[in-house]
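TA notes, week 10

Several of you asked for a full example with nothing omitted. So below is the full record: structure tokens for the whole chain, then the designed sequence directly under it. When grading your own attempts, check the secondary structure regions first.
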């Protein structure tokens, strides 16, 4: 197996094999490069390639526990400008595999595992070893987890070997799988190229450009490589969010109608329950049609007389940390700035409009200053210690502002990430939640900037445990914020079903909490107690088993069992769907059950076991 990288310059010839328009690998640009230093092995080190005319390509490999971090740096050491239309983060060739695994994603349907054989994908070599077979996939836009996660795992059934890959990129990305001359595969990934992502990049003499990072892992099972990829994500956890504390978000309680009075009512009900964070979601600004007022961030003083400081102070007085929702990169149609194009993202010279929204140009110093005042200033003034940052549409193929639309998009999104860092610099203990209509930004470079993330907008659907479990392959469960929206009409089984789903990540409560009976509250209290007992296994453990009898998110049937292990303890989580059976964990001989919660006796019920082995 070789590990290297490639680039392509505009004007150079493309590879043959009927591949032009599908791939830029194997171009005439790379025919001029030779390896000058290092190796192409799967090991720590740097490989240096030169083209003889001043261009230098460095493939930098850094060990990270079980993972290998890889990036490519190209430097123009010539006396002329050059223009790239493709640069990979990595290329792996000589891979033996007969199956590939991908993670699919749509709104409220994140993380679905898709497994296909090489034959299914029609990637077998031709009879004459001629003509490239190519599977190219990715995401075009500023919602990087839309259709696919930037993830790929390749499996060799004969040897039992797996290779796992994650890309760290919040804008347009791509991966390719190729087959031509033998039974092995070539895989590459990085920024979406000119064909896929409308990306070109100019380099003046002396300039360098660095690709996004890729993380590569080898192992003996899908669970093993996914665990290593997830543990290679190093989140910037706030000092106030070091554990697995429970939070409450009021959105599924007020449905966008928060006020001082109903927030106070929630706080009073939750006092003494051990809730760490209480988040006020959308609707605190503008007027009753709040979704059309995004962008100005002026407090609705009918709902919050005198501003937000009074409710933030009240939340703190009851022992909780107050949080607030923003969609800071967007403007809706009734914003004061909506019709002023001066500071907006543009495409073809006019403001880019998507679903009635415009986008702030996050590279514009005026915009940064405005958001420092309206966002960071409000957080500081009111005393919020938690911010939920939402993002509810995508810029698509790109925008104006650079040598190509794809490069302009990359820069705008990188500027957003700079603002995330700026918030933490201004408020070092700030807890940041990454949300994008639920899970559209659950990619590693964003996850490293935040403490938590909205796993999905599937707040009350029966698919919640399926989504939550599948996300173990993509993000740390500690960051995987799963909602349990408890309703006054819920049965005992339904409440347990919702609470047990949160054991697959981070518990977030919502719903009709002040209308629950004492009996219902007793179930919620017992669920929170079991969650706290299981917290270390959730946070630090490894998922060793994930069995599911069905793949439908809309109408799940059968059952799911997930088992996670850490330091001699195991947490088993069972959910039953329609036409289900009761699956029990395979308790090893001598296992000691430490705690149980739920029943799991009927369809749409659940049970969890915490035990020693």
């Amino acid at each position: 197996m070789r590990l290297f990288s490639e680039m392509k310059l505009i004007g150079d010839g493309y590879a043959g094999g009927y591949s032009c328009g599908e791939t830029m690998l194997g171009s005439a640009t790379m025919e001029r490069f030779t390896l000058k230093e290092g190796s192409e092995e799967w090991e720590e080190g740097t490989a240096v390639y030169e083209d003889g005319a001043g261009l230098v390509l460095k493939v930098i490999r850094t060990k990270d526990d079980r993972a290998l971090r890889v990036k490519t740096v190209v430097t123009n050491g010539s006396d002329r400008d050059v223009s790239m239309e493709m640069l990979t983060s990595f290329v792996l060739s000589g891979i033996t595999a007969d199956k590939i695994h991908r993670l699919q994603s749509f709104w409220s349907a994140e993380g679905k595992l898709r497994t296909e054989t090489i034959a299914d994908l029609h990637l077998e070599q031709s009879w004459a070893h001629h003509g490239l077979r190519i599977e190219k996939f990715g995401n075009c836009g500023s919602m990087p987890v839309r259709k696919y996660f930037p993830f790929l795992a390749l499996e060799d059934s004969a040897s039992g070997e797996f290779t796992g890959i994650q890309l760290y990129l919040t804008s347009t990305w791509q991966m390719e799988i190729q087959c031509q001359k033998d039974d092995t595969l070539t895989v590459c990934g990085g920024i979406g190229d000119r064909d896929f992502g409308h990306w070109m990049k100019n380099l003046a003499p002396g300039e360098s450009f660095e690709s996004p990072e890729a993380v590569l892992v080898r192992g003996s099972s899908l669970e093993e490589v996914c665990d290593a990829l997830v543990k290679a994500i190093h989140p910037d956890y706030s000092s106030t969010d070091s554990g697995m504390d429970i939070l409450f978000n009021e959105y599924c309680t007020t449905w966008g109608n928060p006020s001082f009075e109903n927030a106070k009512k929630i706080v009073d009900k939750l006092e003494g329950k051990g809730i760490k964070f209480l988040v006020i979601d959308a609707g605190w600004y503008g007027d009753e049609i709040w979704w059309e007022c995004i962008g100005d961030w002026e407090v609705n003083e009918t709902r919050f007389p005198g501003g937000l400081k009074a409710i933030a102070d009240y939340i703190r007085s009851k022992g909780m940390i107050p949080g607030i929702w923003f969609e800071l990169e967007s403007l809706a149609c009734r914003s004061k700035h909506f019709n002023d194009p001066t500071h907006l993202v543009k495409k073809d010279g006019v403001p880019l409009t998507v679903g009635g929204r415009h986008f702030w140009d996050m590279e514009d110093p005026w915009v940064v200053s405005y958001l420092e005042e309206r966002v960071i200033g409000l957080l500081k003034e009111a005393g919020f210690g938690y911010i939920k940052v939402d993002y509810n549409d995508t810029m698509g193929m790109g925008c104006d502002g650079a040598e190509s639309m794809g490069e302009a998009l990359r820069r705008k999104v990188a500027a957003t990430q700079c603002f995330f860092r700026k918030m933490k610099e201004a408020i070092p203990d700030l807890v940041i939640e990454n949300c994008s209509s639920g899970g559209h930004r659950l990619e590693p470079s964003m996850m490293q900037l935040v403490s938590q993330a909205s796993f999905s907008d599937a707040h009350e659907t029966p698919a919640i445990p399926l989504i939550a479990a599948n996300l173990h392959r993509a993000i740390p469960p500690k960051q995987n914020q799963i909602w349990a929206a408890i309703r006054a009409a819920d049965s005992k089984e339904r409440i347990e079903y919702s609470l047990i789903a949160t054991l697959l990540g981070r518990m977030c409560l919502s719903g009709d909490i002040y209308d629950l009976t004492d009996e219902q509250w007793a179930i919620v209290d017992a669920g929170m107690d079991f969650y706290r007992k299981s917290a270390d296994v959730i946070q630090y453990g490894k998922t060793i088993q994930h069995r599911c009898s069905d793949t439908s998110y809309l109408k799940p049937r059968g059952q799911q069992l997930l088992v996670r292990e850490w330091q001699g303890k195991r947490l088993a989580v069972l959910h039953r769907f329609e036409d289900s059976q009761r699956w029990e964990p395979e308790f090893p001989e001598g296992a000691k059950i430490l705690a149980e919660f739920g029943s799991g006796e009927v369809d749409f019920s659940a049970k969890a076991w915490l035990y020693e082995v």
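The chain has two domains: 2-231, 245-454. Use that as a sanity check on your answer.
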